[in-house]
């Protein structure tokens, strides 16, 4: 596994493949139309979910052998403070766990899937290959996912709620961009007050009997470079002049590119991935650093 692991967090949408994909807040099962005939998406009301305050302590900068980028330059601070939009990764950033690892552990395949996750997040294997391989190890059914969501409320990273409130107070738009699954991310977004249309994530597919069929490969986040594509789509759709990406993994770093994110902030309060952190514009171990910098 790349980096140091200090803790482990954890929770729907109709057919469509637009720039910004709306979610449907219902408690029913919906059958997908063409091209996913006889496949079903699970949609659940996010009102039934409560977050669990994560009792974790962020990693400290002293754990990093190279800490030059823990002190942001004036240019980096100016970009951060004047950002029109901020995009957050979810797993090991907004939440303190890797959602797919938690679901796999719940279904009895935790260790094997966690190993694949570490390889994918470190950038040593194409994301789409790792995603398919991880899901094939436990093939979660619809009933298993529903049971997981009911029994494992999301664990939110310390300080993230305050940070997002601060950004919104400053009229900065906030997005969640994740290689995880909408079924697990919608409750998180609801807790943080992020609208469904500001979510880019993957979608699990189920058959009419609830059997696992795979994931929607039309989602940009289902493949390597997908987060960069999502950020570019967001920027093009709204004409943001300055956009920041915050996350812990290689797929988050990829979002920093022309017409994408201007700034990449590596959040290492949960997972320190040295190869990613070394290339970040700013490395932080606690969201309070970002909050204080906005004051």
TrEMBL record:
Record-listed E.C. numbers: 3.1.3.3
Claim: Transmembrane is one of the keywords in the record: no
Cofactor(s) required for function per UniProt: Mg(2+)
Pathway per the UniProt entry: Amino-acid biosynthesis; L-serine biosynthesis; L-serine from 3-phospho-D-glycerate: step 3/3
Domain of life: Eukaryota
InterPro entries: HAD-like_SerB (IPR050582), HAD-like_sf (IPR036412), HAD_sf (IPR023214)
Pfam families tied to this protein: Hydrolase
EC category name: hydrolase
Keywords, comma-separated and alphabetical: Amino-acid biosynthesis, Hydrolase, Magnesium, Metal-binding, Serine biosynthesis
NCBIfam families hit by this protein: HAD-SF-IB
Identification of the protein by name: phosphoserine phosphatase
Organism: Rhodamnia argentea
